[in-house]
Design goal:
Elements: H1 3-20, H2 32-41, H3 53-65, H4 72-82, E1 96-101, E2 115-118, E3 126-131, E4 135-148, E5 156-161, E6 166-170, H5 172-207, E7 209-210, E8 213-214, H6 219-248, H7 253-279, H8 290-303, H9 314-321, H10 332-342, H11 359-367, H12 375-388, H13 393-409, H14 412-423, E9 429-432, E10 448-451, E11 458-468, E12 475-481, E13 493-499, E14 505-511, E15 517-528, E16 533-534, H15 540-556, H16 558-575, H17 577-581, H18 587-614, H19 622-645, H20 654-667, H21 672-682
Parallel strand pairs: 1-3, 9-12
Antiparallel strand pairs: 2-5, 3-4, 4-5, 4-6, 7-8, 10-11, 11-15, 12-13, 13-16, 14-15
Helix pairs in contact: 1-2, 1-3, 3-5, 4-5, 5-6, 5-7, 5-8, 6-7, 6-18, 6-19, 6-21, 7-8, 7-18, 9-16, 10-12, 12-13, 12-16, 13-14, 13-15, 15-19, 16-18, 16-19, 18-19, 19-20, 19-21
Pfam families: Acyl-CoA_dh_1, Acyl-CoA_dh_M, Acyl-CoA_dh_N
Protein name: Acyl-CoA dehydrogenase
GO molecular function, one term: oxidoreductase activity, acting on the CH-CH group of donors
Length: 689
């Protein structure tokens, strides 16, 4: 099915549910049997024959949003398995549940005479039992279904199956695929339920007033809402990637699905609880949808473990099988060409200045046309350079941040002067943004540019701090205030591109925790011609926004270097997995799984940010989300490496350097707190006072 076909199918599902199960409160006495009959009539259980996983999960998602436990994926899996028989003894589109059975387990179903924790069991007609190790799958009628009251509403059931109606031989691979699909279905439904609660919380935060203002204007609420949105967006992107790989027949789709499931298993309850915190007492009582969605999220997440995989968790797969994270779908041809070029250059952990490029590498990139790529291809280049730890950061930064801004806002003369330098990797620049009283709050900057009474130029006075690489730069991309009375403040800003050897510019070096050099730069009676101005007078904010869009993608691109660190950590574990990580199920393996999933989530958000920027809106939500998740992951990764590898990880090398560098990723380009504020406002929450 095409994306438009899936969207139309989802609309149809939504219409059916609106009549029979309009919202999560229906769960108290929901007509699950009527929904099941309608689903059969509308063909929801016939999607397996087309391998239309996207459509099946669209139905699951719509059910999750209204807290309806219709076992869509059970029908999908049963249809796929029973279709192997020429004449199944029972209709595949019937009310069939699927259960996995594993010998020797006290918690999982362990005999054919009992199936526990069944969803919608009192309205199902048959159960298909699958032995985890492979063998004979048995389709049997349900003779009795005993309710198991508890968290789930409607209740789970304990089923008593009857004699076989049909059997089919299944190998371990088929059972494993079934488990992956069932786990993914539960994850999708849980995430959809949490997302619905999150949406209700956002609307509540816009109108609920406390202490004379909307609660959404409180910093703590805005930060929580932003974090929930990041978790949801990453989860939906990972799910979409798994579906895309499945429908394309990619060999790595099970790993992509497990990554999506692992992310959601953690994220959905966290988002649900975050939304409850925002809703406060309003969402605590059963007149509201939130309590019913709470039940659905937690019931679905806990049932994921009822469908075990022989391959284990994400870390087990990566360490034991030799697999790597699924590669991004975009730029494969470009990656191949880049590999042929970049394999000739040695890489290694960076410990010095950000502008300390390898001139031969930069020359090769320029001659190959790699410094004049479009936005999406620029990110592919950033990823490959970052993963290989190659010294070309300054050339790439000029392309990503300044190239696009000059192309859009520069004069013909500026384009002629600077774009060739950028394309050759010869423009060394620094960012003149942060000030002692204006760090992340760039709109409050005070460095003043006033008209030169002696000519048509400008005189600049002020001070910039934390200017990384200023001591090596030839130019500064300088944000100044040209209208001190402007309201709002950002309306009075103008951008200049100024040579660093201009009289009146002085600097003091400071060494950062990472080893990089940043500078305090003072501007005193610095005279520049009007030709140094980029964009309109008092029109600098759009120029800065375009440059920041590129910067935030670069910040999100930390995923590339973290991906390399992850692979290094996995390589260390593969030498002796039990000695390094312990046995399957250990805390270290759980920690490694979490790191791998978050690396992939960050990569997915970076990709979404690139697509949004190309469409003209990436700074609103996607790029800040990539920056926040990447920065937090960098901090956690460094700590996890020390925890897993011990003192060896604290010796000079990629892990200890990554830990020291991680602080920059949560403060550079605007602190994560500020980025969360941008996300919250992008979701419609009011500004704080």
């Amino acid at each position: 099915m095409t994306d438009s076909d899936v969207a139309a199918f989802a609309d149809s599902v939504r219409g059916v549910l609106a009549k029979l199960w309009p919202d999560a409160r229906t769960a108290a006495a929901g007509p699950i049997g009527e929904v099941w009959d309608a689903a059969v009539a509308h063909g929801w259980f016939e999607l397996a024959s087309e391998r239309a996983l996207g459509a099946a999960l669209a139905a699951v998602r719509e059910c999750g949003r209204v807290g309806c436990p219709l076992p869509v994926m059970d029908g999908y899996v049963a249809g796929a398995l029973l279709a192997r028989r020429a004449a199944p003894a029972a209709p595949v589109a019937g009310r069939i549940l699927v259960a996995l059975q594993q010998k020797g387990s006290d918690r999982l179903q362990q005999d054919y005479d009992r199936v526990r924790y069944a969803e919608a069991g009192t309205t199902a007609t048959h159960v298909l039992t699958l032995p985890v190790e492979g063998g004979t799958a048995r389709l049997r009628p349900i003779l009795a279904a005993t309710p198991m009251p508890g968290l789930a509403v409607p209740d789970w059931s304990e089923l008593a199956p009857g004699p076989d109606v049909s059997t089919v031989d299944v190998d371990p691979a088929a059972v494993d695929e079934a488990a992956v699909l069932l786990r993914l279905g539960l994850a999708v439904r849980a995430l959809a339920a949490a997302e619905r609660t999150h949406e209700l919380a956002i609307e509540h935060a816009k109108v609920r007033r406390q202490f004379g203002r909307p609660v959404g204007s409180f910093g703590a609420v805005a930060a929580r809402v932003a974090q929930c949105q990041i978790e949801l967006s990453a989860g939906n992107l990972l799910i979409a990637d798994a579906v895309r790989r499945f429908e394309a027949g990619a060999a790595d789709w099970p790993l992509a699905a497990e990554i999506a499931t692992r992310h959601t298993r953690v994220a959905a309850p966290r988002v649900q609880l975050g939304a409850h915190h925002t809703l406060a007492a309003t969402g605590y009582f059963e007149e509201h949808e939130a309590p019913w969605l709470f039940r659905r999220v937690h019931a679905d997440v806990t049932r994921i473990a009822e469908f075990p995989r022989t391959a284990g968790d994400v870390a087990d797969i990566l360490v034991e099988s030799g697999a790597g994270l699924p590669t991004p779908r975009a730029g494969n041809e470009l990656r191949t060409r880049l590999a042929q070029l970049l394999d000739r250059y040695p890489g290694g952990p960076r410990t010095g200045d950000a502008l300390d490029d390898d001139p031969e590498l930069v020359r090769a990139l320029a001659e190959g046309g790699y410094l004049e790529l479009g936005v999406a291809d620029q990110v592919v280049l950033q990823e490959e350079i970052g993963y290989r730890r190659l010294p070309a950061n300054a050339a790439l930064a000029a392309t990503t941040m300044l190239g696009n801004a000059i192309e859009r806002h520069g004069t013909a003369e500026q384009k002629a002067a600077f774009l060739p330098l950028i394309r050759r990797g010869q423009l060394r620049f620094c960012l003149g943004y942060s000030e002692p009283e204006a760090g992340s709050d760039l709109a409050s900057l005070r460095t003043l540019a006033r008209r030169d009474p002696a000519g048509d130029g400008w005189i600049i006075d002020g001070q910039k701090v934390w200017t990384t690489g200023a001591h090596l730069a030839n130019y500064v991309w300088l944000a100044t205030r040209t209208d001190p009375e402007a309201n709002p403040p950002h309306a009075g800003i103008t951008v200049f591109l100024v040579p660093m050897d201009t009289p009146g510019i002085s600097l003091v070096k400071h060494r950062a925790l990472s080893g990089e050099i940043s500078c305090t730069v003072t501007y005193q009676d610095v005279r520049v011609p009007d030709t140094a101005r980029v964009g309109a007078v008092n029109g600098g904010w759009p120029v800065i926004t375009d440059a920041l869009a590129g910067e935030r993608v670069v910040m999100g691109g930390i995923a590339a270097s973290l991906h390399r660190q992850l692979d290094d950590l996995i390589a260390a574990a593969r030498v002796d997995p039990v000695a390094v990580l312990g046995s399957p199920g250990s805390a270290a393996r759980e920690r490694l799984s979490g790191l791998a999933v978050r690396v992939q989530a960050t990569r997915a958000l970076v990709g979404a940010a690139v697509e949004a920027i190309e469409a003209g809106g990436g700074t609103r939500l996607e790029a800040p989300m990539a920056a926040v998740l990447g920065g937090e992951l960098a901090e956690d990764f460094g700590e996890a490496a020390l925890e897993i590898l011990g003192p060896a990880a604290a010796l000079s090398g990629a892990f200890e350097y990554g830990l020291r560098l991680s602080i920059m990723y949560v403060v550079g380009g605007g602190t994560n707190d500020v980025q969360c504020g941008l996300i919250a406002r992008g979701l419609g929450l009011p500004r704080s006072r």
